[in-house]
Amino acid sequence: MANDNNRFQAIISHCKEYGFIFPSSEIYDGLSAVYDYGQWGSELKKNIKDYWWKSMTQLHENIVGIDAAIFMHPTTWKASGHVDNFSDPMIDNKDSKKRYRVDHLIEAEADRLENEGKKNEADALLTEMDKLLAASDFDGLKKLIEDRKIKCSISGTSNWTDVRQFNLMFSTQLGSVTDEASEIYLRPETAQGIFVNFLNVQKTGRMKIPFGIAQIGKAFRNEIVARQFIFRMREFEQMEMQFFIRPGSQKEWYEHWKKERMDWHLSLGIPAEKYRFHDHVKLAHYADAACDIEYEFPIGFKEVEGIHSRTDFDLRNHQEYSKKKMQYFDNDLDANGKPYGNYIPYVIETSIGLDRTFLMVISEAYTEEDLSTADKQDSRVVLKLPAKLAPVKLAVFPLIKRDGLPEIAKQIMDDCKSQFRCFYEEKDAIGKRYRRMDAIGTPFCITIDHQTKEDNTVTIRYRDTMQQERISVTAIKEIVGSHIV
Ligand code: ATP
Questions:
Q1: What is the pLDDT of residues 127-168, one digit of tens each?
Q2: HEC secondary structure over 349-386
Q3: How far is CA 154 from CA 95, 97, 228, 335, in A?
Q4: Which is it for the CA torsion 117, 119, 124, 125, positive or negative?
Q5: What phi and psi values does residue 301 have, to the nearest 5 degrees?
Q6: How far apart (Å, rounded) are the C-alpha atoms in residues 175 and 190?
């Protein structure tokens, strides 16, 4: 199992040093598992968002988007099962007072066993854990941890409390009155904003089943174990799509979306061997089938996206709690020539974390290259981002700060900047400027020199190969433009 902690730490440092990600409120020593995106991070994040949004909505005629509020009526979360079920079994180490998610503690032990070559033992441990989790057998889980002598990584002891449930939703008060009725939650997933708007969208958009509703937005979870940079945050963003279908067709659509979503991942230029599907043995309370798309992060294979066959669980429960019909009238004919009639649609959900996708994209792109020659030690860090996701597409450099070169460079910049993100810089030697652009993943740099004044050509330098060639100023937009669609 690949677990390259040094590489992971190098990526975290790089993200901070080059303005991608900062710890939240850092001047106050940060806030645990909360992060801010800086000048280049926010651009990269937005580009990932736009790419997902376009591929889901613009390229699917039967999928539309919405943007629902973070605050929702509190009954939403009773109907969705989050008030009762959105909790994880936790255990505390009595000596270090550190709290662990039981499944994470046992999974870490299984990883350890696997790394020692005891794969069968690790698999048996995970199977036993899945069985106990599925049965909510907390005493059994505690016994498993004790029998295996699993230790706390801080205290080194196996002095454990009982296993308890811990709800992951953040709550706050609506309005000025603090009574129970005014307690509301910060949404732990964006999906429910889609379900409660199912009929609004279906009716106003005259949508016919099968159709989907997509949404990108913030979600909040009071994660207990949250120390893997932006992999697990307490405030994060999801890109979700709920696809409404006829009951009985869920298997076929589930397979369809598994393939579509994997194709999307591959379209990022990430090789297939860096991905795998993980089928869930223990299904969430709403699902009849579920799997994760896992990517091989520097810290090992981990979930980036979940694909869930959610049955009619959500719409049925909203119908029950709201007393409003959540039904669809299907006048298509079935095999017997009869209209399908009224039903509560089934749902296939694709749910991908934006921040995890960001981490995936940057982990894949981060490259340390040794460029040493016989007479000179040299190296560079380059982000080999797909050009369509890169924060800056084109850097424009005058070779020197005089002789009218900055004026020409600024003119080129002005001509290009309405079409794609450009960056102008005239400080430092050209080599240094190239390296700074490599570090933020800028795919193209152009340099304006004295020859430009004579023949209207510039040097274009390609990030990945570092090759340079002379092109006409009039070709710049076309070259860059053709790589970023
Ligand atoms: P995990 O098992 O890692 O906690 P999950 O199965 O609870 O994730 P889902 O509820 O299926 O996750 O959420 C869908 C997606 O949202 C996940 O695949 C992940 O990319 C993202 N996500 C979930 N929780 C977090 C978090 N705390 N921080 C960042 N992204 C998250």
A1: 899 888 878 899 999 999 999 999 999 999 999 999 998 888
A2: EEEEEHHHHHHHHHHHHEEEEECCECCECCEEEEECCC
A3: 9, 9, 16, 63
A4: positive
A5: -70, 125
A6: 23
Q: How far is the CA of 236 from the centre of ligand 1 (A)?
A: 9
Structure tokens, 16: 């901070």
Alpha-carbon distances of 122 from 127, 133, 169, 181, 315, rounded to whole Å: 9, 16, 32, 47, 39
Give the sign of the dihedral formed by CA 251, CA 256, CA 261, CA 266: positive
pTM summary value: 0.88
- Residue 367 dihedral angles phi and psi, to the nearest 5°: -135, 125
Partners of 311 in the β-ladder: 347
In residues, how long is the chain? 485
Distance 219 CA to ligand 1 centre (A): 10
Gap from CA of 435 to ligand 1 centroid (Å) = 35
Nearest CA to ligand 1 atom 18: 305
Contact predicate 312/247, CB 8 Å: yes
In three-state secondary structure terms, 455 is: helix
Tokens linked to 193: 């904003």
CA distance 298 to 1: 10
Give the integer Cα–Cα distance in Å for 188 and 102: 20
Residue nearest to atom 26 of ligand 1 (CA): 232
pLDDT higher than threshold 80 for residue 341: yes
Of 453, 364, 446, the C-alpha closest to 408 is: 453
Count Cβ atoms below 10 Å from residue 295 Cβ, excluding itself.
Answer: 23
CA-to-CA separations, 80 to 88, 200, 472, in angstroms, rounded: 16, 19, 59
The structure tokens listed for 397 are 């450099």
